[in-house]
Amino acid sequence: MWRYVLRRLLQAIPVFIGTTLLIYAMVFALPGDPIQALAGDKPVPDNVLETLRDRYNLNDPLLVQYAKYMWGLFQGDLGENYTGQSVSEMLSGRWAVTAQLAVTAWVFELVLGILLGIWAGLRRGRFADTLVLSGTTLVIAVPVFVLGYAAQLVFGLHWQIFPTAGTDDGWPMSYLLPGMVLGSLGLSYVARLTRTSLSENLRADYVRTANAKGLSRARVVGRHALRNSLIPVVTYLGVDFGNMMAGAVVTEGIFNLPGIGGQVFESIQLKEGPVVVGAVTLLVLIFLLVNLVVDLLYGVLDPRIRYE
Amino acid sequence: MNAAGLAAVALAASLGLSACGGDDAKASDGTFTVGHSEPDHLMPANTTGSYAFDVITELFDNLMDLTKDGKAVPLAAESVTSDDQKVWTIKVRAGQKFHNGEPVTAQSFADAWNNAAYGPNAMGANDYFSSIKGYADLNPEDENAKPKADKLSGIEVVDQNTLKVTLNDPFSQFPLLLTYPAYAPMPKAGLKDPKAFDDHPIGNGPYMMDGNWERNKQVKLVAFPGYTGTRKAKNKGVTWKSYSSADTAYTDLRAGRIDVLQTIPSAKVPEAKRLLGDRFLARKMSTTDYLGLPLFDKRFANPDLRKAISMAIDRQGVNKAVFNGSYFPADSLIPSIIPGHRANACGELCTYDPAKARQLFDKAGGFSGTLELYFSNAQPTYAQWMRIVANSLRDNLGIKDIQFRQVPASDYFSLLSDRKEKGPYRQNWEADYPSPQNYLENMWGSAGNRMGWKSTEFDDLIAKANKSPDQAQANALYNQAEDVAIREMPMIPLWTWAGEGGRSKRVDNVTITPFSTGLIATEVTVK
User: Fold this and answer.
1) Contacts of residue B492, Cβ cutoff 8 Å, sequence gap at least 6
2) Distance between CA atoms of A24 and B386, rounded to whole angstroms?
3) Are B410 and B387 in a shared domain?
4) Are A166 and B248 in contact (CB under 8 A)?
5) Torsion angle, CA of A36/A37/A41/A42, rounded to 10 degrees?
6) Closest Cα of chain B to A116: distance in Å?
7) Are residues B207 and B324 in the same domain?
8) CA–CA distance, B128 with B121 (Å, rounded to integer)
9) B286-308: per-residue pLDDT in tens?
10) Distance CA A190, CA A199 (A)
C-alpha cells in the first residue's frame, strides 16, 4: 500500500507542473494591461508604468515569466500581486476562511446527505423516499446564488437566526448558513447516491443471506449493505471537494467571506497571474490529496480492494 | 422552503442558538461602521481610488480642506499664498502632531511629496505632482534612464513651519490641488518602512489606526486624542468594513450590521427609498459620462456631425429608462456641483432636437461606413444606455450600420490610450478637486486629450485662467475655454451621476460630499 501512496504522490509532480504552466499561460493570454487597469482612468506616467512592468516581469515572454515564478516558488516565495502585497500573506489569511467554510459544508453534506439517503433507501417507494427525491431535485435545479440570497434574506435578515454576512461572529455561527448553501448541492447528490445504492444492495443475495442467518436489521443494514453502498458516495465526496471550490466563489461573494474563491475571481479580473497560480496550485494539491485519501478508503469499505 | 432550508432550521434549533440582531449585538460604544469596497493602498500617494480616499481623508489632515460646497480652506496650513500663482508660500500650523507623537512640520510635507514624485517608487498618484518644478528630473522621458534627482527642485523648506513651492507654470488652482489625498504629509517612520506604513498609516488627522489594516475585512479607526485641528471627531471611532458584493452590503445595512452605506446598488434604490425613508441619503456626484469622438478618424472631423450626434441623444429619456430618473442630464461640460459651473452653458447643443440634429447631420454630409460604439463591461448600465443611444442615432440621423464594441474593463483604457477605437466611446471623469480646470485641462487640453482635438484658443484661455490670481476671474476664463470646446464638440457631455446611500437608526448627521472627502466621518453622531 505504501508503494501505491508513493507512486500516487510522485504522479502529482507532473500534474503540478502542468497545471501551473497551463494556468499561467491562460492568465497571460487574457487581454488587457494589468498595470494600466489598476490605474483606471487616472493618468499614470510612462516611466511609472515601466517601473511596475519591470518589477513584475511583465515585459518578459511567457516562458521566462513562468520560469522566474517557479524559481521563486522553489525558494518558497509565491511572489507579489500588483499592489505589492505578498501572495503567501494574502492566501494564508484567506485559507482559514475557505477551510472553515468547506469543512462546514462538507460535514453538512456528508452527515445529512447520508442520513437522508439511508432514510429514503430503507423506505423505497414510500413517502420518505418521494420527499427526499423531490426535495433534492428542487435543490439541484435552483442555482446556488438564488439559494444563497434567499437563505440570507430569510434566515439572516427576517428571522435573524444567523448573521447576514461577514466573519465577525467566527466559527461556527458565521459559517453555518453559507456552509449549508454551499453544501446543499452536494447534499442532494449524496442523498440520492446513498439511497439508490443502498436500496439496490438491500436486494442483493448477500443481504438475503445475512437476513437468513437471523442477523438483526441494524447489523444487516449497517455492517453489510451500507458499507458496500458507500463506495460511490465516497468517490463523489472526493470529487465534490473540487466542485465546492468553484461554488465557493459565489457563496463567499454573497456572504462576504474573504476566502480563496473570491480571491481567485478577483485576481482573474485583474490579470494577477501569481495570485491565481498560487491559489489554484494549492487547490490542485488539496484536490489530489483528498482523492488519494478517497481511493485509500475503498480498501477500508471493501476489503477485497487491494493496492499494488 | 427546500431541504436545505428545513435543515437550516433544524440545525439552528438543535444547537440552541438564539437570534442575534445587529442592533443589540453592538452595545453603543460611540463608534460606527461603514460598508465599502476594499481599498488598494492606504499610503496616500500610492492610490487614486475613492475607497482608499475614504479612509485616508480621516487619517490625514492635508494642508487645505474642502468645504461642503467645494471651496478650499486651510486645515493643516495656516495660509497658502502666492503673488504670481507660480511660487507659493505655505505656512504650516504649529503644534500639530502625528499619531506617533512626531511633530508635523514643513519637512513632513516635503518628504512625502518627494517620495511620491520619485519615478522609481512607482507611486499610484505620481502624476499629481507633475506641476511642481523639477518633476521631469525625477521622471525621465526615457523609461530606462536613471532619474537625475530624487528631490523636487521646486520644494524648499524655509524654516520649520514654512514651505516654498515653485511650479512649472502659474497655477491658480494650486490650493485646490492641495486638498487631493496624495498631498498628505508623512512621518519619518513611514519613509523608513513604506510597507508597514501601508498596513498601518500614521497620519496627523482626527482618527488614528486601531490595529493594522485587516485586508479584505476591515480598517478600524479610533479618535486621535492628540488632535488639534478643526475636524475634531464627534464620535469615538469608525470602522470601514470591506464588502465584495454591493448587494450584500445593502442587506447588512438593512439588518443593522453596518451604519452607513455610501452606495446602494441601483436596482435596490426604489426599495431602499421606501424602506429607509429619511435614512435614505441621495446626493449629486462629480462623476460625469461623456461620449468621446475620435477626431483622428476623418469621418468625425466635421463639427456639425458631432453636434448632430449630441442633439440626437435624448438625455432625459436615457435617465428615466436606465437610472430611474435620478441622474442629472448634462447642460455643460462641468457638473453642477463644481464651482464655476454655468447652468445651460451647452444650450441647444445638449438639448434633444431630432429635426435640428438631422439638419446638421445632412449639412455635414452624413456618415459613411460602420459606426462602432465603444464601452467597457465595468458596469451593466453602460450597455443599456449605449443601446438607447444607438437607437437614437439610427432613428434620428438614419445611421443604419451601428455595431457595439464591449471591451473588458482591464483592456478598455489601454485601447483608448493607443487610439485603437474606430468610433464614439464612453468616457467618464470624477473630479480630483472641484475646479473646472480639472475637467477641462485634463480632458480637452491639447497635451493629453484622447480625441486628437487641437485648439490653441482653448489652451491659451486655460493658461490665462491658470495665471489668474482671482478665483472668480479664473472661472470666467475657464468658462470661455469651455465655450470653445462646446462650439467644436469633440466630446459630448451626457449626464452626471447620482449617489444613493443610507444610514442605520444608530447614527445621525451623516453627510456625504460629492468630492474626494466623501463621507464626513468626524461629524457623524452615534446614539
Assistant:
1) B290, B291, B292, B293, B306, B309, B310, B313, B350
2) 35
3) yes
4) no
5) -50
6) 10
7) no
8) 14
9) 999 999 999 999 999 999 999 99
10) 14
CB-CB contact of A284 with A241 (8 Å): no
Report residue A180 as a C-alpha cell: 449549508
Domain extent, residue A42, equals: 2-74
Q: What cell numbers appear for A49 in the block?
A: 508604468
CB of B228 closer than 8 Å to CB of B249 = no
Cα–Cα distance between B459 and B463 in angstroms, integer? 6
Nearest Cα residue to A254 out of B265, B247, B22: B247
Enter the DSSP assignment of A160: -
Q: Do B140 and A108 touch (CB under 8 A)?
A: no
Any A CB within 8 A of B4 CB: yes
Q: Structural domain tally of chain A? A: 2
Residue B118's Cβ-side half-sphere holds a number of Cα atoms within 13 Å equal to 14
Question: CA-based angle B351:B338:B453, to the nearest 5?
Answer: 60
Q: Say whether A256 and B255 touch across the interface (CB within 8 A).
A: no
For residue B91, the enclosing domain spans 31-259+504-526
CB under 8 Å to B445, separation ≥6 — which residues?
B458, B459, B462
Please give, rounded to a whole number of angstroms, the shortest distance from the CA of A25 to a CA of chain B.
17
Residue B149, helix vs strand vs coil: coil
Q: Quickly tell me which residue has 444610514 as its cell.
A: B503
pLDDT tens, B132-160? Answer: 999 999 998 877 778 999 999 999 999 99
Closest by Cα among A224, A231, A269 to A249: A269
Do residues B261 and B249 lie in contact, with contact meaning Cβ atoms separated by under 8 Å? yes
Task: State the CATH number of the domain containing residue B204.
Answer: 3.40.190.10
A50 — contact with chain B (CB < 8 Å)? Answer: yes
Mutation to test the B interface, candidates A30, A42, A134, most B Cβ within 10 Å: A42
Q: What is the pTM of this model?
A: 0.87
Which value, in Å, is the radius of gyration of the alpha carbons in chain A? 24
B40 and A CB contact within 8 Å: yes
Contacts of B2 in chain A (CB under 8 A): 135, 138-139, 142, 147, 184
Q: Does A152 touch chain B (CB under 8 A)?
A: yes
Asked if pLDDT for residue A43 goes beyond 90, the answer is no
Number of domains in chain B: 2
Contact: B254, A34; criterion CB under 8 Å:
no
**pLDDT higher at A49 or B271:** B271
Residue A88 lies in a domain: no
Which residues of A are less than 8 Å from B136 in CB distance? none
Its ipTM equals 0.82
Looking at the structure, do residues B225 and B295 belong to the same domain, yes or no?
A: no
The amino acid present at A72, given as its one-letter code, is: G
Chain B CB contacts of A152 below 8 Å = 248, 251
User: Which set of grid coordinates corresponds to residue B342?
Assistant: 454655468
Sign of CA dihedral B96, B99, B100, B106: negative
Kind and range of the H or E element at A129? helix A127-141
Count Cβ atoms below 10 Å from residue A232 Cβ, excluding itself: 14
The pLDDT confidence band at residue A77, using thresholds 50, 70 and 90, is confident
